[in-house]
Amino acid sequence: MPDVSADNLGLRERKKRRTREAVRSAAFRLFERNGYANTTVEQIAQASDVSPRTFFRYFPNKAALLIPDHLMEPVVDLFLAAPAELSPFAAYRYALQRVFSGIAGHEWSDEISRQQLLYTLPEAAGALYNEYIHVITVITGALAQRLDRPVDDPQLRIAAGAMTGVMMAALHDTPMSPELLFDGLDFLDAGLPLRAAGTETRHVESTGTILR
Question: Which SUPFAM superfamilies match (predicted)?
Answer without folding.
Answer: Homeodomain-like (SSF46689)
